[in-house]
Amino acid sequence: MVNDLISDSLTRIRNAGMRRLDVTTLLHSKSVEAVVSILVDKGYVDSFNVIEDGNKKTINVVLKYDENGRCVINEMKRVSKPGRRVYKGKEDVKRFKNGYGTIIVSTSKGVLPNDKAYELGLGGEVLCTVW
């Protein structure tokens, strides 16, 4: 059984990108679906769809590659872990990697990228960073 679905999903996406796979399958949860939808909005992943098989749900993620065949995602890191939660205020989530990267934050208004959280004046638990 997987304790941390978000870190498992990030690892599956990272490994599929290193192996140059077109599609990878993730275990479903609302937070994982929110993180993947942010990755699609920011252009790190091509698309995703939720598949229901009886009482099980999975997420199929279509990865994105550049013209040289390399994965668009350079690095994905899980920041807040079950053993050590990391929280940031609204000023601390302003920019990441000089605007080239994205911080995904779990706020009181849901899971948001850093630019939307800063616009709304929200801080929260830093789930992961992507660039």
Structural description of this entry:
There is one protein chain. This protein is α+β, with helices and mostly antiparallel strands and 131 residues long. It has a single domain, classed as Dna Ligase, domain 1 (2-Layer Sandwich). 26% of the residues lie in helices and 34% in strands. It is built from 3 helices and 8 strands; from the N terminus they run αβαββββββαβ. It has helices spanning 5-18, 30-42, 114-120, and strands at 23-27, 45-53, 56-63, 76-78, 87-88, 102-107, 110-113, 124-130. The strands form 2 sheets. Strands 4, 5, 6, 7 and 8 form a 5-stranded antiparallel beta sheet that branches. The chain has a 3-stranded antiparallel beta sheet with strand order 1-3-2. A hairpin with a 2-residue loop joins strand 6 and strand 7 (110-113). The radius of gyration is 15 Å and the shape is globular. It starts with a helix and ends with a strand.
